[in-house]
């Protein structure tokens, strides 16, 4: 890490926007001036880009921090903003989704068609008793119905909780129970890595396997047929989408809901074992998602073909697949599968096929493309690309430069966008027509956003120094809380800098001499693997839940492709050590974690050790384990209860 930091600080390459790009850019320098002069007025202007059934008269209510309200006396319908208003403006024939299935089947969905589907589904939901405020879990592959499901839930004022299709039945159950979902919308299965990956069976398992757990709140399951895989059916509970949706009325008038009506819950990993249900509401969220999508991605909805590769199971898929682009009337690619199926040029093939102009992906994907080599993208015509984006983790300057040259043809500006599930929308990024970009730096707070880097006491560190990233003023798309746990909301984000009233993001950052921000990774026990957030504690809990494990410690070790990788150190009970080979134990533990949480949480390495490094008070010193996992000389061990333990561990791993 320290050599990486040195490297970053010597980065001197600069890329100014071309005059042609700047001339027609959506985001301009005036936005900064306007926002600096009147921050709330600036956000009110952005909010007025939406359709309000009842216009708001108040902008921000911060009288009860950290519980913010934005545009609170206004009323709107989020789905109406993403659909009907475009159709009413005569854009019903504009393509909303250019859908590409992994096997190569494709479908085009216009705004008119999507509106029709969402209206019918909204009628189905109402018929099933879904009302304002009810929670609906969505566990789906990347198909148009997934987007329609989110919008239909929003349309009736209910709250969706999308669970990533790669999560296990267990993770799904925890999320369904925590939210008290009344309905699940799923598919039989979806295509991933060349085969059908089943989803409905996991829903059945999540709903059936109650044990001593909470009572089942789910009344119905709506199932889209996609994979064609065999599934079990519960006549009382399950409904086929293709039976109920086409049969429903296409007439549905969007009702207005208050700006602060909850829109969605999205679970994310924190520093404890239990995932947090991050709560977002309607008016402020949609305002900032749509605004940032326009100015950061330089979206010209009439002409651009936009592609954000995120799954709808993550916040990026919420803000930059569903809500931002559709609120803006954009035409976008939606791809079901993985970028290397059936061949390593799949992404470039899609860009060529649809003439993608804006491409937004994660550094981990870029690094795996680099590994395969530039000869693969070179076989495709990528000349349509005019803007590139990066999100989810720091992008190293090498990957940035490769992205620019090989994918962007040395002309497309790159925006490195920093934000979080909690922030709801992009917070730090270049504006591509304004900012001179620097490889590896996310750079500047967006207009209307106030960011700083401070020390442990909350004092500004100033240019040239490092510290903790904070958000110093409330913002429209900020989380409104953690579902069912207001205390945890306050503790996690607001207690550390309570005196100043700052939001603590959990990221380390540096300011360079120009005042540009360089993100330095998490400062807590949260890992970032392929741009996905994982909690060390959550994986440790899964490991010790296995009968063979006595104790476990997990660290995020740097990894060439995935940014960080999960590395586990486990102490195995003697009886298991006697009866099984270490390799066999390690394999079954990797598999176990995959089943408990999901394949993304599966450790890259499992090391079986005799002891773990602990302080005198019994706290595991993960820093030392990270040194070992990254093949470095082990750091200062003087605070260990037993200073010899690290040499024993290091020797064991050689
Ligand atoms: C964490 C949030 C933002 C949507 C996807 C991830 C890291 C995110 C960047 C970036 C450096 C980044 C941070 C942040 N992160 N974007 N451009 N540069 N780090 O959302 O799962 O909520 O994770 O991802 O560490 O805290 P998330």
TrEMBL record:
Alphabetical UniProt keywords: Acetylation, ATP-binding, Ligase, Magnesium, Metal-binding, Nucleotide-binding
Acetylation listed as a keyword: yes
Cofactor(s), names only, from the UniProt record: Mg(2+)
Annotated residues for binding of Mg(2+): 544, 546
Annotated CDD domains: ACS (cd05966)
N6-acetyllysine modifications at: 619
PTM text: Acetylated. Deacetylation by the SIR2-homolog deacetylase activates the enzyme.
Class of the enzyme per the UniProt entry, highest EC level: ligase
MF annotations from Gene Ontology: acetate-CoA ligase activity
EC numbers for this chain: 6.2.1.1
Domain of life where this protein originates: Bacteria
Domain Acetyl-coenzyme A synthetase N-terminal: 29-82
Binding site for ATP: 392-394, 416-421, 507, 522, 533
Pfam families with a match to the protein in the record: ACAS_N (PF16177), AMP-binding (PF00501), AMP-binding_C (PF13193)
Catalytic activity: acetate + ATP + CoA = acetyl-CoA + AMP + diphosphate
AMP-binding enzyme C-terminal domain span: 538-619
Residue ranges annotated for the AMP-dependent synthetase/ligase domain, each copy included: 90-483
Binding site for CoA: 192-195, 316, 530
Role played: Catalyzes the conversion of acetate into acetyl-CoA (AcCoA), an essential intermediate at the junction of anabolic and catabolic pathways. AcsA undergoes a two-step reaction. In the first half reaction, AcsA combines acetate with ATP to form acetyl-adenylate (AcAMP) intermediate. In the second half reaction, it can then transfer the acetyl group from AcAMP to the sulfhydryl group of CoA, forming the product AcCoA.
Stated family: Belongs to the ATP-dependent AMP-binding enzyme family.
NCBIfam families noted in UniProt: Ac_CoA_lig_AcsA (TIGR02188), PRK00174.1 (NF001208)
Protein name: Acetyl-coenzyme A synthetase
């Amino acid at each position: 890490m320290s050599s990486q930091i040195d490297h970053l600080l010597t980065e001197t390459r600069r890329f100014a926007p071309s005059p042609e790009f700047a001339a027609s850019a959506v985001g301009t320098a005036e936005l900064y001036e306007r926002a600096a002069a009147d921050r709330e007025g600036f956000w009110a202007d952005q909010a007025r880009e939406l359709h309000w059934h009842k216009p708001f008269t108040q902008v921000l209510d911060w009288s009860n921090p950290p519980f913010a309200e934005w545009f609170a006396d206004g009323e709107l319908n989020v789905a109406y903003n993403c659909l009907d208003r475009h159709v009413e403006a005569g854009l019903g024939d504009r393509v909303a989704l250019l859908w590409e299935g992994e096997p190569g089947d494709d479908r085009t969905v216009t705004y008119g068609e999507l509106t029709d589907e969402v209206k019918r589904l909204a009628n189905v939901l109402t018929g099933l008793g879904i009302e304002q405020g009810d929670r609906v879990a969505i566990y789906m592959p990347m198909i148009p119905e997934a987007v329609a499901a989110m919008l239909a839930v929003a349309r009736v004022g209910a709250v969706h909780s999308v669970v990533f299709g790669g999560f296990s039945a267990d993770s799904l159950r925890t999320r369904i129970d925590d939210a008290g979902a009344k309905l699940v919308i799923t598919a039989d299965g979806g295509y991933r890595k060349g085969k059908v990956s089943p989803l409905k069976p996991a829903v059945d398992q999540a709903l059936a396997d109650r044990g001593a757990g909470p009572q089942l709140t789910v009344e119905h399951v709506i199932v889209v047929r996609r994979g064609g895989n065999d599934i079990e059916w519960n006549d009382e509970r399950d409904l086929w989408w293709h039976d109920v949706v086409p049969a429903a009325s296409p007439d549905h008038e969007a009702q207005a809901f208050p700006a602060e009506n909850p829109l969605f819950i999205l679970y994310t990993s924190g520093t404890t074992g239990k995932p947090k249900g991050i709560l977002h509401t309607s008016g402020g969220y949609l305002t900032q998602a749509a605004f940032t999508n326009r100015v950061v991605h330089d979206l010209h909805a009439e002409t651009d073909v936009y592609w954000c590769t995120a799954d709808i199971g993550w916040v990026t898929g919420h803000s930059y697949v569903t809500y931002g682009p559709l609120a803006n009337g954009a035409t976008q690619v939606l791809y079901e599968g993985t970028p290397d199926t059936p061949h390593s040029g799949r992404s470039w093939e899609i860009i060529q096929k649809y003439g993608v102009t804006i491409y937004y992906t994660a550094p981990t994907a870029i690094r795996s493309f680099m590994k395969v080599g530039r000869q693969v993208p070179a076989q495709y015509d990528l000349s349509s690309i005019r803007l590139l984006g990066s999100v989810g983790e720091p992008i190293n300057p090498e990957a940035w430069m490769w992205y620019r040259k090989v994918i962007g043809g040395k002309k497309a500006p790159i925006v490195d966008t920093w934000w979080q599930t909690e922030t709801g929308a992009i917070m730090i990024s270049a504006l591509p027509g304004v900012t001179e970009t620097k490889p590896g730096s996310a750079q500047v707070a967006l207009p209307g956003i106030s960011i700083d880097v401070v020390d442990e006491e909350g004092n500004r560190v100033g240019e040239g120094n490092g510290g903790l990233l904070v958000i110093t003023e409330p913002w429209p798309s900020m989380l409104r809380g953690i579902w069912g746990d207001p205390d945890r909301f306050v503790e996690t984000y607001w207690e550390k800098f309570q005196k100043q009233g700052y939001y603590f993001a959990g990221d380390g950052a540096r300011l360079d001499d120009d005042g540009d921000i360089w993100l330095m990774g998490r400062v807590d026990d949260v890992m970032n693997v392929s741009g996905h957030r994982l909690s060390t504690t959550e994986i440790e809990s899964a490991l010790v839940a296995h009968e063979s494990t006595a104790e476990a410690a997990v660290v995020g070790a740097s990894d060439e492709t995935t940014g960080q990788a999960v590395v586990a150190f486990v102490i195995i009970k003697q009886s298991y050590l006697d009866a099984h080979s270490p390799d066999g134990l390690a394999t079954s533990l990797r598999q176990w974690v995959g089943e408990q949480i999901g394949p993304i949480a599966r450790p890259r390495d499992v090391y079986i050790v005799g002891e773990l490094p602990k302080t005198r008070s019994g706290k595991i010193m993960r820093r030392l384990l990270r040194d070992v996992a990254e093949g470095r000389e082990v750091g200062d061990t003087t605070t260990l209860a037993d200073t010899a333990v690290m040499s024993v561990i290091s020797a064991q791993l050689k």
